Amino acid sequence: MENIQKSTKPFVTFSRRTKKQDQIFTMILFLLAPILLLFVFTYIPVFNMFGYSLNKWDGYSKAKEFIGLQNYIELFTRPELFRVFGVSIYYFVASFIQLALALYFATILSFDVRLKNFFKGVLFFPYLINGVAVGFIFLYFFKPDGVLDLIMVSLGLGDYVQQWLGNRAIINYSLAGVSIWRYMGLNFVMFMGAIQSIPSEIYEASSLDGANRWQQFKHIIFPSIFPIISLSLLLAIRGSLAVFEIPYIMTGGANGSSTFVIQTVDMAFKNQKFGLASAMAVVLLLITLILAGVQNLIFKDKNAGSN
Amino acid sequence: MNAKTLMEKIGLPVFKYLTLILGVLVAVLPLLVIFFGSFKTGTELRTTGPFDLPQNWLNFSNYIQAVDRGNMLLGFFNTTIVLVVSVFGTVMVGSMTAYVLNRFDFKFNKLVMALFLIAALVPGVTTQVATFQVVNALGLFNTQWSAILLYMGTDIISIYIFIQFLDSIPKDLDEAAIVDGASYFTIFTKIILPLLKPAIVTVLIIRGVAIYNDFYTPFLYMPKTSLGTISTALFRFKGPFINQWEIISAGIIIAMIPTLLVFLFLQKYIYNGLVKGSIR
Lengths: 307, 280
Description:
The complex is a heterodimer of chains A (about 300) and B (about 280). Chain A has helices at about 1-5, 10-15, 20-50, 70-75, 80-85, 85-110, 115-125, 130-140, 145-155, 170-195, 200-210, 215-240, 245-250, 260-270, 275-305; strands at about 55, 65. Chain A is mainly alpha-helical and about 300 residues long. Chain A folds into 2 domains: about 1-50, no CATH class; about 85-260, MetI-like fold (Orthogonal Bundle), CATH 1.10.3720. The termini of chain A are far apart. Chain B has about 280 residues and is mostly helical. Chain B folds into 2 domains: about 1-70 and about 240-260, no CATH class; about 70-235, MetI-like (MetI-like fold, Orthogonal Bundle), CATH 1.10.3720. Chain B is about 75% helix and about 0% strand. Chain B starts with a helix and ends with a helix. Chains A and B meet through helix 2, helix 3, helix 6, helix 7 and helix 8 of A and helix 1, helix 4, helix 5, helix 6 and helix 7 of B.
């Protein structure tokens, strides 16, 4: 009571008298919106999705028909639904090339190079470009008699010109190539940051010992940034299962370029089979969660080992 | 000089610069031909090679068409609204959550943290089938709130960034303020939030780039033409302009201009921010 009379700021006084109460009040005030958003847009959808996957439902009508595991049985017995996972392999292999290129450029640009910032900027910039723009840029690039064909002809490789997006045997290589072009810059900048955090005395000492660049790479750089390389690799595996934008924008999934996510989205919104689409999403979610679990296991071990 | 040192002195640098130049060519050529094409007339584009310079560098008619018929101004307007509101929301929600989780000592905190961590493992694209139903049931379909709330509600990376940064702010500061009689709310707004400025810049960059470039959220939840963002407005070029690559090229360049400007002026922050944001 005394406090209230003394102070002109009632709020301050309130908090002085009941610190714990103020803390609880602040906690509720601050966490209400985040937790509400978290449940409404992540947990409720995930929970509902399991329910939908056990029903036959068009996504709009009130009537849902409970059919048990029928959607899952359909998913696993129709090979054409599962085959799209094969398309992930192209992106998966591409991510190795992407990481190798990123590692190469990060290594050479961490040492004396003229115009270092120019090279760094240009190699990184594609990562920032809008995905729809990237898709269109490469539709033009791969067009028959387009940019790539012209480059190949002028290099004397005219005989090897292909229908880059028209040939079912080639299309996924082309699209995975676009993916490398788009995402290499991010890995490259991440690796470069990691390499630059290695203390320079280590290089100097190894130079005095007569180590060459390759030996420095093999014995100093690679081991010190190995955690970030394996992390990138795991993220790349998860990414290659969830490929959507580039093939959807460029081909709409035509010509054997459909991915599991494209197929799921089409199944729900084009074919109005929400139950089956949910079952597909559940399968993908479970695979991704298993991979995330593996990731956590590996990195827990790594941390425990290094400490 | 023996062969080995000759190789190291000349061979390696030559190889190094050759690969760098090759890398630059691969990165730039696809963009350069689009840039050239955006200044060419339709006939010119069909009759000249993609590497031929445009006859008239002041031919802006493709840009006018792209803006005019391609709804690109509207796209910028809509993207700006969604981006500003949701990034503001993300900063508030993220910093408040991080403050409670980092500074208060409740048992309940561990559970909240675990909820956010598990949610971070759920890739957004996989649950769209069910998220769509929630958005629809809330009456948010075909409104800008769908994108705004989804961007705010599914972003967990910024909470991490704020928590990491809060770890580096000494707790003595809060405690001194508590002794002076400040409430927790006052401590947050007057002391913590101003100190979080570098983390806020990081979040602004990561979220800004992600939202500006996002395609599937506006594509799925805001199909109405009047709500088109830069991504969806550009995507719709595919229909009417599919044989007019000069106009599509202009559209691509228009969509890239803000990205290029932001990159040129904020390079250092972008490198740092994206590296922080991508390591979970």
